From TrEMBL:
Residues 349-395 are annotated as: Disordered. This is Hsp70 protein. SUPFAM superfamilies: Actin-like ATPase domain (SSF53067). Residues 357-374 have a biased composition (Pro residues). GO terms for molecular function: ATP binding; ATP-dependent protein folding chaperone. It comes from Lentzea guizhouensis. It comes from the Bacteria.
Length: 395
């Protein structure tokens, strides 16, 4: 069955969703893999798994357009090429699962990217053979995912509160007369708390009871935070939700205040919470107490952007005028409800801008550093998938 593909390359995880061209517009998650690329000593690349022998790159998606490349042993690789290689691997893996090529691919990117960074990623994708692709800003993808389930009238606005492991952003988008979304305002958190800081706060609480030299797994803290009930047990120590909320309250207040500044005088129809960091009810409660509108999230808010990218790819193929408006908006619920979540939901196709010069930067006196030339063409040829991960498919 024909399908389109949406890919969200996050700092921690990369998520892929497909949307069928026949039937409903709902997108489904088909792949979740760590955003890791490893160069082995044999000169091949693996994806998503780390071997003790080799050089690993992570966090490259947010550094697209950075003049400083990644150094992986004998190779020097720009961030956009690593991102393109990961996207290519994802496409190949999904094709193996679906049995056919996608009709179109949409890849998300931070809303703050300008023509230079988008051009860099477009060029890198072409280099690895990915040509039929649309780049979609993350908040617009989140809005598209919302629009699948709820009718969004022209000229109405939505706000997007996004909190991941390593990034925070606040955005306002508007529905156009052509049933697409446009970006009204956006704030990218620079010195803002992120999901990883909340993990550290939980680890600090546990370490305070075990002793400052006690080992506390950050991965265990992240898993506990994502599944926080009345209490969690980390390293044998029970931490109640109230204790943890009290610990992170300054961070929550800071993020909500930044979101309010980004929204300005705009009165949104709803606030969409996306990213794995918003799973805790404290964020929904804090936003609900601050804004006079609905505050909404999915059961798995970290998947919202990837699913919205797949919806955007479908709109590129079939056109927004061919898609009926949702009839039932009863699935929208307030975050204070026990069920808490609902499946959230055209992005105008991004222009395939030509390569442009990077934005001007302040003059800085830096001693020149001679770097060996990149060998990306060889890396593209030797990319070696690790195979399907037993835990990569998401229900």
């Amino acid at each position: 069955m024909s399908y389109v593909l949406g890919v969200d390359v996050g700092t921690t995880r990369t998520t892929a969703a497909v949307c069928r061209l026949e039937g409903g517009r709902d997108a489904e998650i088909v792949l979740v893999v760590p955003s890791l690329l490893q160069l082995t000593d044999a000169g091949t690349f693996s994806v998503g798994e780390v071997d003790p022998v080799g050089w690993t790159a992570s966090g490259f998606a947010r550094r697209v357009g950075d003049a400083v490349p990644f150094s992986l042993g004998p190779e020097v690789v720009p961030a956009e090429e690593l991102t393109a290689l990961l996207v290519m691997w994802v496409i190949n893996d999904v094709v193996a699962r679906q049995g056919e090529q996608p009709r179109h691919v949409a890849v998300t990117h931070p809303a703050g990217w300008g023509p230079y960074r988008r051009g860099q990623l477009h060029g890198a994708l072409r280099q690895v053979g990915v040509h039929d692709v649309t780049l979609v800003p993350e908040p617009l993808a989140a809005a598209e995912n919302h629009a699948v389930r709820a009718r969004v009238l022209p000229d109405s606005t939505l706000a997007v509160f996004s909190l991941g492991s390593h990034a925070f952003s606040a955005s306002v988008v508007r529905r156009t007369q052509g049933r697409t979304f446009e970006l009204v305002n956006h704030v990218e958190g620079v010195d803002q708390p992120v999901g990883g800081d909340l993990d550290d706060a939980l680890a600090a609480l546990v370490r305070g009871r075990l002793g400052k030299d006690a080992f506390v797994s950050v991965a265990e803290c992240e898993a506990a935070k994502r599944a926080f009930g009345p209490s969690v047990v980390v390293a044998g120590v029970e931490v109640t939700r109230d204790e943890f909320v009290e610990e992170i309250r300054p961070a929550v207040d800071q993020l909500v205040a930044t979101f309010v500044r980004a929204a300005g005088a705009v009165q949104p129809e709803a606030v969409l919470m996306v990213g794995g960091g918003v799973r805790m009810p404290v964020f929904g409660d804090a936003l609900s107490a601050t804004v006079d509108c609905r505050v909404l999230a999915e059961a798995a808010p970290e998947h919202s952007v990837a699913k919205g990218a797949a919806v955007a790819a479908r709109l590129v193929v079939v056109g927004p005028e061919a898609e009926p408006e949702p009839l039932d908006t009863s699935v929208l619920v307030h975050t204070r409800e026990a069920s808490l979540r609902f499946p959230v939901g055209e992005v105008a196709q991004a222009d395939d801008e030509e390569f442009t010069a990077p934005p001007p930067r302040p003059p800085v006196d830096v001693s020149p550093l001679e770097l060996p030339p990149p060998r990306s063409k060889r890396m593209t040829r030797v990319l070696k998938p690790t195979g399907r991960r037993s835990g990569s498919r998401s229900d």
